[in-house]
Design goal:
InterPro entries: NADH4_N, NADH_Q_OxRdtase_chainM/4, NADH_UbQ_OxRdtase, ND/Mrp_TM
Radius of gyration: 23 Å
Distance between the termini: 35 Å
Subcellular location: Cell membrane; Membrane
GO molecular function: NADH dehydrogenase (ubiquinone) activity; NADH dehydrogenase activity; ubiquinone binding
Organism: Insulibacter thermoxylanivorax
Largest sheet: 4 strands, mixed
Structural class: mainly alpha
Number of domains: 1
Order of helices and strands: HHHEEHHHHEEHHHHHHHHHHHHH
Strand order of the largest sheet: 1-2-4-3
Number of helices: 20
Membrane topology: Multi-pass membrane protein
């Protein structure tokens, strides 16, 4: 039934329905704006569930949509050979992108619900920017054209800039500017890499049409067959020899991609911008940023690093793994010495993204599956933890571990959820964090046992900083000022319960995720000869 519908286009642009409705509501009608803003996030979630209901878990890429977007004829290179630039509106999903799309719609709706209690001003603008951000994120995970991917990627930057700059805390403007500068540099590096790839023309298989294209499949084919220097009259021609990418150019493009998505992940030492975002952005924006946007960095490394440059990934796997271990240890040690709960969780995100790098560097199915598990698991856990932190700050006006204490008496529900989220963060068996770390480390151990052991040490440190934070906040002496604080309201409790449910589900029944991503992971590893 879904084969005849543009389900991906419907899903990606469904948040814009809410944008249009919000635009028609006057700014002073705050209740209506909040209802529409939250309800508008339910439509993408419903469509994502519908998409998954028709997803063939044994198949590869599905729900493909393609249309010529830009077709620009150029002067022919030689007689009888059409020569043009073609950019396509091309969408497709496999198990990895389908899982991340569902995660995006779920976290977005939970963040929108949480915003009902946290956002106090300019609701119309907030939800418009929020829904535009969701559109950009969904487009990133479905785009099959490099230029289209870049457009959706850029669409995630501007809305988040305003969400931080307008609704953030004391240093919101400085933080928003730093976010834009770092991510702008990453975007520039990505665009340069994409331009080089697009400017490397090839012949469409079975024809003599000479084309500059940003279509992912064509670029991947061209890179894989760059050694075919066939006669210019052959029907099997794929390249004009003069335009074949030199090995040095390929390496240059590969490192551009590593840097671009390493900044987004973020990998050490490009992480400082992320710390301020987690500290200064409003809770709903941090839920989205930590839960979804950081995952775009890893997704880009898989799609454009691993799939387009498998040889280079093998050559530099050790380097990537080293940076993964640095992320894990550096993030864990710094999280352990922080006195602010927001920064504890921010450095924890740095550490856990290191596990993703290790899973990718393993270059086998077990490791890559662990990396994708970590993307989904950390997306759920970090969204939950930053929701709790935002709720604590709203009630106490502080996130200092030195000032908070004994809150389990006043807020037993919220502190109980915080404990469960912390246990998931440190990788307790039965929760989602355990299986992701296990797969990543097992996948890496055969090829890099020393780095695996060092990475495991970082996870041990996670237990220290998580339990330290839980003990400081939930137990001990409580300041008299916080004796009357209220526990979670309904708009906070529902997202907390939903996120916990998925954390537990993946922990006790990981097949619900492995069956979704398994074929995609296998296809990628087989594509690199793993």
């Amino acid at each position: 039934m879904l084969d005849n519908l543009p389900i991906l286009s419907m899903l990606i642009f469904s948040p814009l329905v809410g944008v249009l409705i919000l635009a028609l509501i006057r700014s002073e009608h705050g209740r209506a704006l909040r209802i529409v803003g939250v309800a508008a996030t339910a439509l993408p979630l419903a469509l994502a569930i519908w998409m998954l209901s028709g997803f063939d878990f044994s198949g590869g890429r599905q729900f493909a949509e393609q249309a010529v977007w830009i077709h620009l004829p150029l002067p022919p290179l030689y007689e009888g050979v059409p020569h043009y630039v073609q950019l396509n509106y091309s969408l497709v999903v496999d198990g990895i992108s389908a899982a991340l799309i569902f995660l995006t719609t779920l976290v977005a709706m939970m963040a929108a619900l949480a915003s009902l209690g946290h956002i106090k001003k300019r609701w119309k603008a907030f939800y418009i920017w929020f829904l535009l951000l969701e559109t950009g994120m969904l487009g990133v995970f479905a785009a099959q054209d490099l230029f289209l991917f870049f457009i959706f990627f850029e669409l995630t930057l501007v809305p988040l800039y305003f969400l931080i700059g307008i609704w953030g805390y004391k240093e919101r403007e400085r933080t928003a500017n730093k976010f834009l500068i770092y991510n702008g540099i990453g975007s520039a590096l990505m665009l340069l890499a994409f331009i080089i790839l697009i400017a490397n023309p090839g012949f469409i298989a079975g024809s003599k049409e000479h084309v500059y294209t940003s279509e992912m499949d064509v670029i991947q084919y061209n890179l894989e067959h760059a050694d075919l220097h066939l006669d210019s009259q052959s029907q099997e021609l794929h390249y004009k020899p003069a335009k074949v990418l030199l090995p040095e150019t390929k390496t240059f493009v590969f490192f551009l991609i590593l840097l671009a998505f390493g900044i987004k992940l973020p990998a050490f030492p490009f992480h400082t911008w992320m710390l301020r975002v987690h500290a200064e952005a409003p809770p709903s924006a941090v839920m989205i940023h930590s839960g979804i946007l950081l995952k775009i960095g890893a997704y880009g490394l898989i799609r454009f690093g691993l799939e387009l440059f498998p040889g280079h990934m093998e050559q530099y796997a050790l380097l990537i793994a080293v940076f993964g271990v640095i992320n894990i240890l550096y993030g864990a040690v710094l999280a352990l010495v922080q006195s602010d709960l927001k920064l504890v969780l921010a450095y924890s995100s740095v550490s856990h993204m290191g596990v993703v790098l290790l899973g990718i560097a393993a270059l086998n199915e077990t490791g890559l599956e662990g990396a994708v598990f970590q993307l989904v698991s950390h997306g759920l856990i970090s969204a939950l933890m930053f929701l709790i932190v935002g709720s604590l700050y709203e009630r106490t006006e502080t996130t200092s571990l030195e000032k908070l204490g004994g809150l389990a008496k006043a807020m037993p529900f919220m502190c109980g959820i915080f404990l469960l989220g912390g246990l998931a963060l440190l990788g307790l068996p039965g929760l989602s964090g355990f299986i992701s770390e296990l797969l990543a480390f097992v996948g890496l151990f055969d090829s890099m046992p020393v780095l695996t052991i060092l990475g495991v040490l970082g996870i041990i440190l996670a237990a220290a900083y998580v339990l330290r934070a839980v003990m400081r906040i939930s137990y001990g002496l409580m300041d008299d000022r916080y004796a009357e604080v209220k526990d979670a309201r309904l708009s906070e409790a529902i997202p907390m319960i939903v996120l916990v449910a998925f954390i537990v589900l993946i922990g006790i029944y990981p097949a619900v995720l492995s069956e979704t991503i398994g074929t995609a992971v296998t296809d990628i590893i087989h594509g690199i000869g793993g």
